[in-house]
Design a protein that fits this description.
single chain, 68 residues
Length: 68
């Protein structure tokens, strides 16, 4: 599995474990839902600031998001 696919799976898993919808996460990040959905689907990637915020929202490290 490529790193991108690992990240997408980890991101989706973290969101599901936190019981958030894509829309809820997007709202917390201040982005539109489609932007967040694109990250889970591997179409685009979040920048480092967004990675930090994702880690805070899901209470995981950036390394956990990227590598599992």
């Amino acid at each position: 599995m490529s790193m991108d696919k690992i990240f997408c799976k980890n991101l989706k898993d973290a969101r599901n474990l936190s019981n958030f919808t894509q829309k809820q996460v997007a709202e917390r990040l201040g982005v539109v839902e489609s932007c967040y959905a694109n990250w889970e689907q591997g179409r685009t990637e979040p920048n480092i600031d967004m990675l930090r915020k994702l880690g805070e929202i899901f209470n995981v490290s950036i390394d956990e998001l990227l590598n599992g």
